[in-house]
């Protein structure tokens, strides 16, 4: 019996709704032979159409919006394997990159392809460092050179490279100072972008622009691009149409499970709705701990435990819920695991857990079995993404889930429930209800007119004129651009693309000069795909591992001991002894340049939460102010930051000594973060930090977005 059935008060702050599942019609065409289970797969329509389009001659811009669980991955992988194509597949997280490599290798064996006919490799920064170990006699090998060699491994056979968008973007922008790597990328047959709906306006703008530029270059072999997303990005699809790419769009053709025919792709849910607040879900779980212990304890069947997954928002929430459930379930033979930024997913964890407590680290893509789900859904996109973790179930199975939502959504759905008596929604109807009361996102149309042209210009300049820069070892490399004889023609061709994508008028000489001079000032802030943030290099005492992690979290929630970099390295040497040079020193050397501070990490503070404020005094205050009014101030690379915390951290002065030397892309605003969040309805996932004098500061891409919002507001007031 459920605890909610035995405790009357349980029904006062929650209600139940039924969520229908989804079906998708299958064709009669045999698609793949599953050699493991000796059965044939029937194809979905989008899979047959994808194969036809991918194998056809000519360019392709395909947006596949088929639902979660409908085989979007195999829709591009099968034709790529059939034709031994060379493919770069891009995934939003490194964990997903590594997971998908395993899935590709498994598919090759499962469906009867010869593994010797393909080179499959995952590429992350950490894996590139391991790749470098294959060439011990070559000193100073750069990332670009390694990437180039990896792509060449596919000569004479199929090639499936899986990587993150940062590596792809930086390679195409020549940030690795290896001219041939861009041409190597342009020599492959196809690029796949998975989970495209997760891309921000900056990211989606630039991905589409770079791919358009490559597809129209007669020197580029690459002309097929596939974007996979269960949630359409209509603005980008409309952009693709406007600039003449003739995109092919596969819309979601799924139908409700209960009243249609076809193969089930998402199950029916018995969904319990509870009201909550972001980053406070753990408190509600602890208050009703018996209920969640019962949820985890009830077996799925006579012969096995249920696999229960919690997806929360903060790493602190994961820590708290992990501890209370571990204690409460200690007398039972259950395996309790956690996955977050400090505790990565492993195949063993994902296969063998009974209870998994996690954050956004597992909400995207990584495939593992889930029977019951407890999750927070404080934004429309998060709620829909997380609810999709329950999939690939037998037709008759009804899954259980508990969802914590904002008060406004809770009240809205509860009224519907009261009117209907028993609330049942299809997936489409749920989306419609979410859109009525939850914000769909910021209006950042001005970003595409202001900063996307600058980023596009920088990309073109690197390609046409070349770059001068230095690598990790600070060795300088000269410009390597196109031959001067063809540069003018390339500028004319590609500047026209900037006009088509981002501008409402033709580029004249004055506008081009403004673009050139302003983009030069913005280069460091626009270069990377994910943007910059303060990170600390920490030694985690819980598992004795070296990690880069978000400095702001450590300041707010961590038991941390900061120290100078030299003392940090010495302490590592003392800890690891004779294994330091072999095991730890290479990691330390590769990670330290990304660190704004160095610390020993002893876990979380418990219920304590420090206040953090950036100092702004003297020269630094003038530097970040840029001597300008708020609406004309611009984001810039700035150093000299210091922080203060309340309560104080005794070793904070050591952090400030290193932090002040660290340059980061930043934008100061003459208003508090709480005021700005309320005024622009920024939401909890937009990060603004306190700066002395009741001001706030944004870093990385948030600096660009808040700048657009402030300028737009000023224009409206004029």
Describe the overall structure.
Helix content is 41%, strand content 21%. The chain is α/β, with parallel strands linked by helices and 718 residues long. Helix 2 runs parallel beside helix 3, helix 9 crosses helix 20 and helix 19 runs antiparallel to helix 20. The radius of gyration is 26 Å and the shape is globular. The N terminus is likely disordered.
- Portion of residues in beta strands equals 15-25%
DSSP strand count: 32
* Morphology: globular
Proportion of helical residues: 40-55%
Using the CA coordinates, give the radius of gyration. 26 Å
Features:
718 residues; eight-stranded mixed β-sheet; seven-stranded parallel β-sheet; 28 helices; 32 strands; disordered N terminus
In short:
This protein is of the alpha/beta class and 718 residues long.
Write the layout of secondary structure elements.
Blueprint: H1 3-6, E1 14-19, E2 22-24, E3 26-34, E4 39-44, H2 45-55, E5 60-64, H3 72-82, E6 86-90, H4 94-110, E7 118-123, H5 125-132, H6 143-152, E8 158-163, H7 165-172, H8 179-185, E9 190-193, H9 201-215, E10 224-228, H10 234-242, E11 248-250, E12 255-256, E13 263-266, E14 268-275, H11 281-287, H12 289-297, E15 308-311, H13 315-328, E16 336-339, H14 347-352, E17 355-358, E18 372-376, H15 380-387, E19 398-405, H16 407-420, E20 423-425, H17 427-437, H18 445-450, H19 452-464, E21 469-470, E22 476-477, H20 484-502, H21 509-526, E23 535-540, E24 545-550, H22 551-557, E25 558-562, H23 565-576, H24 580-591, E26 597-604, E27 611-614, H25 618-625, E28 636-638, E29 643-646, H26 652-659, E30 664-669, H27 673-680, E31 689-691, E32 695-699, H28 701-717
Parallel strand pairs: 1-20, 5-10, 5-11, 6-8, 6-9, 7-8, 9-10, 14-19, 15-17, 15-18, 16-17, 18-19, 23-26
Antiparallel strand pairs: 1-14, 2-12, 2-13, 3-4, 21-22, 23-24, 25-26, 27-29, 28-30, 30-32, 31-32
Helix pairs in contact: 2-3, 6-8, 9-19, 9-20, 11-13, 19-20, 19-21, 23-24
């Amino acid at each position: 019996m459920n605890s909610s059935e035995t405790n009357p008060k349980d029904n006062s702050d929650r209600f139940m709704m039924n969520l229908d599942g989804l079906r998708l019609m299958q064709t009669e065409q045999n698609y793949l032979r599953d050699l493991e289970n000796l059965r044939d797969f029937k194809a979905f329509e989008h899979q047959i159409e994808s194969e036809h389009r991918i194998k056809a001659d000519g360019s392709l811009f395909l947006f596949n919006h088929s639902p979660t669980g409908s085989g979007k991955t195999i829709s591009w992988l099968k034709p790529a394997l059939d034709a031994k194509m060379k493919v770069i597949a891009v995934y939003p997280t490194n964990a997903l990159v590594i997971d998908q490599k395993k899935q590709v290798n498994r598919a090759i064996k499962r469906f009867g392809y010869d593994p010797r006919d393909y080179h499959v490799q995952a590429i992350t920064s950490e894996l590139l460092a391991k790749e470098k170990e294959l060439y011990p006699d070559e000193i100073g090998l750069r990332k670009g050179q390694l990437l180039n060699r990896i792509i060449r491994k596919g000569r004479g056979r199929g090639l499936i490279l899986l990587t993150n968008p940062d590596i792809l973007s930086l390679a195409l922008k020549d940030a690795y100072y290896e001219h041939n790597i861009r041409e190597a990328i342009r020599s492959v047959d196809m690029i796949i972008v998975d989970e495209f709906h997760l891309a921000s306006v900056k990211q989606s703008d630039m991905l589409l622009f770079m791919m358009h530029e490559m597809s129209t270059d007669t020197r580029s072999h690459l002309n097929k691009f596939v974007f996979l997303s269960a949630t359409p990005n209509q603005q980008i699809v409309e952009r693709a149409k406007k600039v003449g790419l003739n995109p092919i769009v596969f819309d979601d053709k799924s139908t409700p499970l209960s009243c249609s025919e076809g193969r089930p792709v998402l199950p029916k849910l018995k969904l319990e709705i509870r009201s909550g607040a972001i980053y406070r879900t753990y408190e509600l779980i602890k208050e009703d701990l018996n209920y969640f212990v019962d949820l985890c304890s009830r077996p799925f069947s006579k012969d096995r435990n249920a696999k229960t997954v919690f997806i929360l928002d903060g790493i602190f929430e994961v820590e708290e819920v992990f501890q209370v459930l571990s204690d409460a379930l200690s007398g039972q033979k259950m395996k309790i695991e956690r996955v977050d930024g400090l505790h990565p997913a492993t195949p063993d964890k994902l296969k063998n857990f009974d209870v998994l407590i996690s954050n956004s680290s597992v909400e995207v893509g990584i495939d593992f079995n889930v029977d019951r789900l407890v999750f927070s859904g404080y934004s429309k996109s998060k709620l829909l993404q997380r609810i999709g973790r329950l999939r690939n179930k037998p037709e008759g199975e009804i899954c259980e889930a508990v969802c914590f939502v904002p008060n406004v959504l809770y009240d809205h759905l509860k009224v519907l429930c009261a009117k209907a008596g028993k609330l049942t929604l299809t997936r489409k109807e749920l989306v419609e209800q979410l859109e009525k009361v939850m914000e769909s996102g910021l209006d950042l149309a001005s970003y595409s007119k202001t900063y996307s042209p600058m980023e596009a210009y920088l990309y073109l300049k690197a390609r046409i004129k070349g770059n001068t820069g230095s690598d990790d070892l600070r060795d300088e490399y000269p410009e390597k651009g196109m031959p001067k004889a063809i540069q003018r023609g390339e500028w004319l061709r590609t500047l026209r693309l900037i006009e088509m994508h981002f501008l409402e008028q033709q580029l004249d000489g004055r506008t081009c000069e403004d673009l050139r001079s302003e983009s030069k000032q913005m280069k460091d802030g626009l270069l990377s795909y994910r943007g910059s943030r303060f990170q600390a290099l920490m030694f985690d005492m819980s598992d004795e591992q070296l990690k880069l992690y978000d400095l702001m979290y450590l300041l707010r929630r961590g038991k941390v001991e900061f120290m100078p970099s030299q003392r940090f390295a010495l302490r590592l040497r003392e800890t690891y002894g004779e294994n330091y040079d072999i095991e730890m020193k290479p990691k330390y050397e590769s990670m330290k340049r990304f660190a704004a501070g160095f610390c020993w990490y002893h876990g979380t503070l418990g219920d304590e939460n420090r206040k953090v404020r950036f100092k702004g005094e003297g020269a630094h205050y003038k530097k970040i102010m840029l001597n300008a009014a708020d609406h004309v101030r611009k984001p810039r690379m700035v150093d000299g930051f210091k922080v203060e915390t309340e309560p104080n951290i005794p070793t904070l002065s050591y952090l400030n000594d290193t932090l002040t030397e660290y340059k980061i892309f930043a934008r100061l605003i003459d208003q508090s973060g709480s005021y700005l969040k309320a005024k622009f309805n920024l939401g909890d996932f937009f990060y603004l930090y306190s700066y002395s004098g009741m001001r706030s500061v944004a870093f990385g891409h948030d600096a660009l977005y808040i700048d657009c919002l402030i300028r737009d507001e000023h224009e409206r007031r004029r």
